[in-house]
């Protein structure tokens, strides 16, 4: 299964790169940009997934919005972001990805994050390991690192972080801050290049699911900012703010809540 998904993601990445450099886009209802590359990747992935798993429910960011309406989703379904980071694609920063994830019992259990422009691929396999591949090189097993107080690196934006993330950053003036486009932010934590990724603004589940799976396989966890585990299949497929990290105490010591106090 994972080999087939890696091949699908790589094919979608090639379709995106064929359109790289194009600047024409339209605005969707939420005012986010939509390009020909988004649609090409969407149609390729859904077509290949239908061949691979004809009975599976596969939801893509570019699917009919009516599919996102149910109050409850099945116990197993797929989430796809055919081009995560369309703004980065338009800026030609290279920091955009193809995301494919399997959700089972409200958790991402398998995921592929492919960044075609910079030649990086991350995935979590069904054996519970996280991997990284650079270009056509060998697969490497990756693990998140144990954080060291006073030497933390946070993935966040000091300018657009949101109030709770800004409060954490003010309380940790010695923490380094780094940034990366799209779901690659999670992957920085998964590969041990950062200690936590903080997000105070809403996202959609297809934005996070594949990289969440990679981080979980690398030894990390993702919590809402109120201290609950981030789950999938929520109404409308919308996420609240979250903290992606290894040691939950490095964030939640400062922002405890009744719901977080009972979570190990």
Describe the structure.
The protein is an alpha+beta fold and 264 residues long. The chain folds into 2 domains: 140 residues, Fructose-1,6-Bisphosphatase, Chain A, domain 1; 109 residues, D-Maltodextrin-Binding Protein, domain 2. It is 29% helix and 25% strand. The protein is built from 8 helices and 16 strands. The strands form 4 sheets. Strands 3-4-5-6-7-8-9 form a 7-stranded mixed beta sheet, sandwiched between helices. A 5-stranded mixed beta sheet has the order 11-10-12-16-14, with helices on one face. A two-stranded antiparallel sheet has the order 1-2. Strand 8 and strand 9 form a beta hairpin. Helix 5 runs parallel beside helix 6. The two termini are 32 Å apart. The C terminus is likely disordered.
Helix-strand pattern, N to C? HEEHEEHEEEEEEHEHEEHEEEHH
CATH architecture tag of the largest domain: 2-Layer Sandwich
Give the full name of the CATH homologous superfamily of the largest domain.
Fructose-1,6-Bisphosphatase, subunit A, domain 1
Strand order of the largest sheet: 3-4-5-6-7-8-9
CA-atom Rg in angstroms: 18 Å
Proportion of residues in extended strands? 25-35%
Distance between the termini: 32 Å
Which structural category do the helix and sheet elements fall into? alpha+beta
Largest sheet: 7 strands, mixed
CATH topology of the largest domain: Fructose-1,6-Bisphosphatase, Chain A, domain 1
The level 1 CATH classification of the largest domain is Alpha Beta
Number of strands: 16
Shape: globular
Integer tally of domains: 2
| Number of continuous helical runs | 8
Mean pLDDT over the full residue set = 90
Unreliable stretches (pLDDT < 50, length at least 5) are: 256-264
């Amino acid at each position: 299964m994972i080999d087939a998904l890696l091949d699908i993601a790589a094919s979608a990445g090639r379709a995106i790169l064929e359109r790289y450099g194009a600047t024409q886009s339209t605005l969707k209802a939420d005012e986010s940009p939509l390009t020909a590359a988004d649609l090409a990747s969407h149609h390729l992935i859904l077509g290949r997934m239908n061949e691979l798993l004809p009975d599976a429910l596969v939801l893509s960011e570019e699917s009919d919005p009516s599919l996102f309406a149910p109050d409850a989703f099945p116990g197993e379904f797929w989430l796809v972001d055919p081009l995560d980071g369309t703004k980065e694609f338009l800026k030609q920063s290279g920091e955009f990805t193809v995301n494919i994830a399997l959700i089972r019992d409200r958790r991402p259990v398998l995921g592929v994050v492919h960044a075609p422009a910079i030649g990086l691929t991350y995935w979590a396999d069904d054996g519970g390991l996280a991997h990284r591949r650079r270009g056509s090189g060998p697969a490497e097993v990756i693990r998140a690192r144990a954080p060291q107080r006073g030497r933390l690196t946070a993935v966040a934006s000091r300018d657009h972080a949101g109030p709770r993330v800004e409060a954490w950053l003010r309380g940790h003036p010695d923490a380094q801050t780094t940034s990366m486009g799209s779901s690659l932010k999670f992957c920085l934590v998964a590969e041990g290049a950062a200690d936590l990724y903080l997000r105070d603004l809403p996202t959609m589940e297809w934005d996070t699911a594949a990289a969440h799976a990679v981080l979980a396989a690398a030894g990390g966890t993702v919590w809402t900012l109120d201290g609950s585990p981030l789950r999938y299949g929520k109404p409308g497929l919308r996420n609240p703010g979250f903290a992606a990290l290894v040691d939950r105490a490095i964030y939640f010591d400062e922002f405890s809540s009744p719901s977080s106090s009972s979570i190990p």
